[in-house]
Write a structure and sequence with these properties.
The chain has four domains: 18-95, Carboxypeptidase-like, regulatory domain (Immunoglobulin-like, Sandwich); 121-223, Ferric Hydroxamate Uptake Protein, Chain A, domain 1 (Beta Complex); 224-676, TonB-dependent receptor, beta-barrel domain (Maltoporin, Chain A); 679-791, no CATH class. Helices cover 4% and strands 60% of the residues. The strands form ten sheets. The protein has a 22-stranded antiparallel barrel. The protein has a five-stranded mixed beta sheet with strand order 9-16-17-12-13.
Length: 792
């Protein structure tokens, strides 16, 4: 592998050819100045191409002479430049967005699915995210990602992602390059990502480029909008449970811009009139996004982006009582709740060293924390006041620095390399108890605060070999240092495509991944009681290897079709022991509550048909897969289905632009039911309890000396299935241009044919003491509406 990388770099740096020059610059939205990430650059004469990076920067080196460069991006009118190339040239391109017209780009795009070496990845536009029918009228990025083949949701309404047999903790979620450790609002029903502030979303399920590391199953790379450089704009949206809005514009036109967005639910405010004055309870969440983008000069640009969000459930009770012969009243107050929050901050500096070398330096901070608390206060006559409380909290905090370099020596090579260091601090769980009467004040912990350092370096090259073969080869090296633990991981990555003809290619990929942090999960509902913990001397890091092969075809420049098969093995998985899920039990170290050394296996086939342009857009996906787990300490050491093993999974989503002012959307999903463990039988047992100093007992007394109990025998783990899950969602929106902007009404229906999908199954006993199973469902047909106004 070292020799291969050495050869790659030699080829890249030692160009023996005719004199060449470089065209470079940024590709942006003409109306807003927003970077168009992943836009395509293509030379019609040499048939060479490249794509813009995550900052909109592109670079293409061509021979001296006449060139015709085409620029394109999905949803925008293409543009082209013809010139005689005699020197290095900077060309910044502003593309205009399409309104309704359908423009077919007949030339080959560098980002077309059959051209790219990327496998198992998908990019979703923000327009598509907003158009898909939304749960409770609240647009959600992760709900849209759940519609992609190979990606599943956990339970009904959950925003968790289960990608190719992995768990939610195995997804690297990045917001402007910063890891997000808990992406859920409302106990998992919504995510923290506000669609109003999003510019670009990419999901990678396999064939991971070397620049990504630290997780096993997927990368969700989300970029925030940069702010309108041209004029002040904004939007406001009001729905059933939340209101959100954003405002963006130039601080200095074409030089400095900002964007601010906010969202808050008002479930607590809506229920307030129905509550008693002495008993209050409520729930709300909010999130804020803020970003500043400043162009220093043609070669330097800086960004400062921030996110803050909080969920809070609270209650408060007040009670007064009067005792006999006492005129003063006893007053009792009880309050408490649960809350969890994220804080994310990033400072980035883009620098163009040469037309061929681009750098991004990123300093980041991320903190996730949750807290459960309860307080009791009593004031009574002739007694001292009583004040008592209990508080439990846990969290993780990161400081990090990252340097990424993009080097494009010629159209045959796109080289990326860089380094990344993260300083972690884990707080696995602290319980604090206080009491004024006993003068008790104590802190208990389920594991001391632990520090760890994770450092990685990578190098990769997107290398075009001849006219048909293109490979992406790289390596990701990582080191992890914690107390009494050191780990090193060498992770080779490669993916390739071979053109079978002008519109079709065969692809293959292989990737090894290592994850140094674990999530101890009590539930699949995305509850904040899940704990992040590091690899230790006792608990090894998780590892995975994945291979995938497939075919990709572009049809009529509008349709993209892919067929993929994959096989993934996971090692050193961990899970709670039976009975080890009491997170309030802080008398033990968390390592005593888990089993480790588990193995996982997932394999399957995925089909995706996608249409990105025109009045009708959307995709149809199908997944056939199998996922298993195996622990020596669980299920007698036998392999068993993963809880979210889903044999068949179908998703269809589409939007239809009926006219400029009317748009309809539809979503349909079908999936095999989740695996579950159920009791097979129950039986009565009895044992004799001898009486002390008893004479010969009567028959009744003898019978009463026996202890009777009921025992339940369970099936093998996850050997039963819930019923299949399926539902259909519909939406229609009506827009109209007004003097100062554009308004939009959206009506939507979730689960329109009122399917009673299983949420969980419980066992109960009937009148004859027989066990019966009852299915509980969560959401029936739910209509919703929202109103939005976009200021221009």
């Amino acid at each position: 592998m070292k020799l291969l990388l050495f050869l790659v770099l030699c080829v890249a740096f030692c160009e023996v050819s005719a004199q060449k020059y470089t065209i470079s610059g940024y590709i942006r939205d003409a109306a807003t100045g927003e970077s168009l990430i992943g836009s395509s650059v293509y030379d019609y004469l040499s048939k060479s191409g490249t794509v813009a990076n995550n900052h909109g920067f592109y670079s293409i080196t061509l021979g001296m002479g006449s060139v015709k460069i085409g620029y394109s991006y999905v949803g925008y009118y293409p543009d082209s430049v013809i010139l005689s190339l005699k020197r290095d040239t900077v060309i910044n391109i502003n593309l205009k967005g399409q309104v309704l017209d359908e423009v077919v780009v007949k030339a080959t795009r560098a980002d077309a699915i059959h051209e790219s070496t990327k496998m198992s990845s998908m990019t979703i536009s923000r327009e598509m995210i907003k158009a898909v029918p939304a749960f409770m009228g609240e647009v959600d990025v992760l709900k849209v990602l759940q519609l992609i083949p190979g990606v599943q949701s956990g339970n009904e309404g959950s925003s968790g992602l289960y990608v190719r047999g992995g768990g939610p903790d195995q997804n690297l979620m990045l917001l402007d390059g910063v890891p997000v450790y808990n992406a859920s609002h409302l106990f998992g029903f919504f995510s923290i990502f506000n669609a109003s502030a999003i510019n670009h979303v990419e999901l990678i399920k396999g064939g991971f480029p070397a620049r990504y590391g630290g997780r096993l199953s997927s990368v969700v790379d989300i970029s925030m909008k940069e702010g309108n450089m041209k004029k002040l704009t904004g939007d406001l949206s009001v729905g059933l449970i939340a209101t959100k809005g954003s405002i963006e514009g130039p601080i200095v036109k074409d030089r400095t811009s900002f964007i601010f967005s906010a969202r808050r639910t008002y479930i607590d405010l809506l229920t307030l009139p129905f509550q008693r004055p002495d008993a209050k309870a409520g729930y709300y969440f909010y999130d804020l996004n803020f970003k500043i983008n400043h162009i220093i000069d043609a070669k330097n640009r800086i960004f400062w982006s921030n996110y803050g969000g909080n969920d809070k459930f609270y209650f408060r009770n007040e009670f007064e009582s009067t005792h006999d012969n006492v005129t003063a009243k006893t007053k009792t107050k009880t309050s408490g709740g649960i809350q969890w929050n994220n804080i994310i901050s990033s400072f980035r500096w883009n620098h163009v060293f040469t037309p061929k070398l681009f750098s991004n330096l990123n300093f980041t901070y991320s903190r996730y924390r949750f807290e459960i608390s309860q307080e009791y206060n009593r004031t009574a006559p002739n007694f001292p006041d009583l004040n008592a409380g209990i508080r439990y909290f846990s969290g993780i905090r990161d400081w990090a620095a990252r340097l990424d370099l993009d080097f494009l020596p010629n159209p045959n090579h796109y080289i990326r390399y860089g380094v990344h260091t993260i300083f972690h601090r884990f707080t696995p769980g602290v319980l604090s108890i206080k009491s004024s009467v006993t003068e008790l004040g104590a802190n208990f912990t389920g594991g001391r605060a632990a520090d760890a350092v994770e450092t990685s370096a990578y190098a990769e090259d997107d290398w075009k070999i001849g006219d048909r073969l293109k490979v992406n080869v790289g390596v990701h090296g990582a080191m992890f240092f914690a107390k009494n633990a050191k780990y090193f991981s060498w992770q080779p990555r490669t993916s390739m495509r071979y053109l079978l003809n002008e519109t079709m290619s065969a692809k293959a990929s292989y990737a090894e991944m290592t994850q140094f942090i674990h999530l101890l999960s009590n539930s699949a509902a995305g509850l904040p009681t899940d704990l992040w913990v590091p690899a230790t001397a006792r608990i090894a890091p998780q590892q995975a290897s994945q291979v995938a092969v497939g075919l990709a075809k572009t049809y009529r420049s509008q349709y993209e079709i892919s067929l993929e098969g994959y096989y993934k093995k996971m090692r050193n998985l961990i899970d709670y022991t039976d009975g080890g899920v009491n997170f309030f039990d802080v008398t033990k170290d968390w390592q005593d509550n888990v089993v480790s050394g588990g193995h996982g296996k997932s394999y399957g086939m995925e089909v995706l048909v996608q249409k990105k342009e025109g009045r009708v857009k959307g995709w149809l996906g199908y997944t056939l897969s199998k996922t298993t787990r195996q622990f020596e300490q669980l299920n007698y050491g036998n392999e068993y289905p993963y809880k979210y093993d889903r044999r068949h999974d179908v998703s269809f989503t589409s939007t239809y632009e009926i006219s400029r002012n009317i748009e309809a959307g539809i979503t349909f999903v079908y999936g095999t039911g989740n695996a579950m463990t159920l009791p097979n039988s129950s039986y009565e047992t009895s044992s004799y309890i001898p009486e002390r100093n008893a004479q010969r007992p009567s028959t009744f007394a003898a019978l009463s000396s026996y202890s009777h109990s009921s025992s339940v025998e369970y099936s093998a783990r996850n050997s039963y299935r819930m019923e299949a899950y399926h539902r259909m969602d519909l939406s229609i929106s009506f827009s109209k241009d007004k003097k100062h902007g554009r308004r939009k009404w959206t009506l939507a229906g979730y689960n329109v044919y009122n399917r009673k999908n299983p949420f969980f199954v419980a066992s109960e006993r009937d009148a004859l003491n027989r066990i019966k199973f009852i299915q509980y469902s969560l959401f029936p047909f739910l209509p919703s509406f929202s109103y939005s106004f976009q200021f221009k």
